[in-house]
Amino acid sequence: MERNIAAGLAGLVFGLGLTVSQMVNPAKVLAFLDILGNWDPSLVFVMGGALLVTAGGYRLAWMRPAPLFEQNYQIPCDNSIDRKLAVGAVMFGMGWGLVGLCPGPAIAALTLGGPKIWVFFLAMLGGMLIHLKTLIGKWVEA
Fold first, then answer.
1. Tell me, what's the pLDDT at 112?
2. What DSSP designation does 74 have?
3. Residue 142: pLDDT band by 50, 70, 90 thresholds?
4. In terms of DSSP H, where are the helices of 21-114?
5. How many Å apart are CA 104 and CA 85, to the nearest integer?
6. Are 19 and 105 in contact (CB under 8 A)?
7. Strand, coil or helix: what is 117?
8. What is the CA radius of gyration of the chain?
9. What whole-number distance in Å separates Cα of residue 126 and Cα of residue 128?
10. 9: how many CB neighbours lie within 10 A of its CB?
11. Could you give the CA distance from residue 73 to residue 50 in angstroms, rounded to a whole number?
12. In the predicted model, what is the mean pLDDT of residues 63-74?
């Protein structure tokens, strides 16, 4: 139960941060990505602040023998870059650059409404369902 509450609070703080920083505003994000045009560098400060908070958080976390609500840290062992990872990264970057939203801000932006945000969210959800169906198919075959 404590783990779910902590996850919920972390998601709430993340969503609030995205909203306050205007990363849920596709026009703001696209202006940030337009470095050869009408560039808006304000999100550099948001990302810099996020890096500082993350660095501090990791420093505090590694001082503990284990996370608060788990028995031990779950650190991925595989750090290889394969085709699926590269294709996924390219698709993520293309979607972010074309629309100005990525999954976290898209979910937070649903509270602001607007048909474009809902279309993006539904397309994102469709992609997730297609991937899930593919995973389930592989599990059934195995």
1. 77
2. -
3. low
4. 26-33, 42-61, 83-99, 103-109
5. 19
6. no
7. helix
8. 18
9. 5
10. 10
11. 22
12. 89
pLDDT in tens, 4-24: 999 999 989 888 888 888 888
Looking up tokens 């990505």 gives 33
Q: Tokens standing for 22?
A: 């205007």
Residue 138 in tokens: 């592989």
Task: Count Cα atoms within 13 angstroms, Cβ side, for 33.
Answer: 16
Say which amino acid occupies 128.
M
Joined tokens for residue 120: 């993006």
Q: What's the Cα-to-Cα distance from 40 to each of 1, 52, 60, rounded to whole Å? A: 42, 21, 33
Is the Cβ–Cβ distance between 101 and 26 less than 8 Å? yes
Query: Residue 132 burial (CB < 10 Å; 0-12/13-18/19+)?
Result: exposed
Quote the pTM value: 0.73
